[in-house]
Automatic annotation (TrEMBL):
SUPFAM superfamilies attached to this UniProt entry: Flavoproteins
Flavodoxin-like fold domain mapped to chain residues: 1-211
Family to which the UniProt record says this protein belongs: Belongs to the NAD(P)H dehydrogenase (quinone) family.
GO cellular component terms given for this protein: cytosol
Annotated protein name in UniProt: NAD(P)H dehydrogenase (Quinone)
Pfam families: Flavodoxin_2 (PF02525)
Alphabetical keyword list: Oxidoreductase
UniProt keyword Transcription regulation, yes or no: no
One of the record's GO molecular function terms: NAD(P)H dehydrogenase (quinone) activity
Length: 255
């Protein structure tokens, strides 16, 4: 497989930095090709702006239409175009980051904002039907996505009754709103808890867990989300009442 590893941690000597190196080695040893986007090392610009699209700053910027025009014309800024080319090449994408304020660092959110532009990450239409392709379909359909995250809090504090909430709900915006929306199959995440207190033994155990998960990157069962066009949603994109009757919440979007 071709694997794009997107790493978002400012300290290469951190547990996250060690895991990024360990993961890359594990994949290469298994015969995979790996490309790494180390966002802090790249000094990635996370801020969307007119220069991304060759847009005249004197005119009002409408991000959706400006990004679509630039994408269609091949006029996106070079850093965005390079990351899109990496995504086209990849069979699987790993997003690796520390969980800060129940989400990824701003630099990774900015990567998503700038790279997944209109016409590439969203607003993709089926040329035969004109139907918008998303949630199980899209420009990135056929690829797999894996979140690897280091978390300072203890594992027990994440769950149906944990104070931080269930980790699957916390990561829903990435799993469902990024991976699945763009067509990628979202794999169950790998979370390393207690990262701030990890000693050498804990780091070694985390590396072993990572290697085991990466061994299943091509074959592990993805999260069983419902596709938008699979018949489960009505014309207002609401789950039909006969499916998961009487229930609500994010889990209803599982098949």
């Amino acid at each position: 497989m071709n694997v794009l590893w997107i790493h978002a941690h400012p300290e290469p000597r951190s547990l996250g930095g060690m895991l990024a190196t360990e993961g890359r080695h594990a994949l290469v040893e298994s015969g995979h090709a790996v490309t790494v986007s180390d966002l802090y090392a790249m000094q990635w610009n996370p801020v969307v702006g007119a220069a991304d699209f060759g847009h005249d700053p004197a005119r009002r910027l409408r991000v959706g239409s400006a990004s679509r025009r630039a994408y269609d014309a091949g006029e996106l800024s070079a850093d965005i175009a390079a990351e899109q080319e990496k995504l086209r090449w990849a069979d699987a994408v790993v997003l690796q980051f520390p969980l800060w304020w129940l989400g990824p660092p701003a630099i990774l959110k900015g990567w998503l904002d700038r790279v997944l532009v209109h016409g590439f990450g969203f607003g993709v239409a089926d040329p035969a039907t004109g139907r918008v392709r998303r949630y199980g379909d899209g420009e990135l359909a056929g690829k797999r996505g894996l979140v690897v995250t280091t978390i300072g809090a203890r594992e027990s504090s994440f769950g149906p009754r944990g104070i931080h909430g269930d980790l699957e709900d916390v990561l829903f915006p990435l799993h469902h709103g990024v991976f699945w929306y763009t067509g990628m199959a979202a794999l169950p995440p790998l979370a390393i808890h207690g990262a701030d207190r990890a000693d050498e033994g804990a780091a070694a155990r985390a590396a072993t867990r990572l290697r085991r998960r990466l061994a299943g990157l091509a074959c592990d069962e993805p999260l069983p989300y419902r596709s938008e066009h699979g018949g489960g949603y009505d014309e207002d994109l609401v789950l039909r009442p006969e499916l998961s009757p009487g229930r609500s919440g994010l889990a209803v979007h599982y098949r």
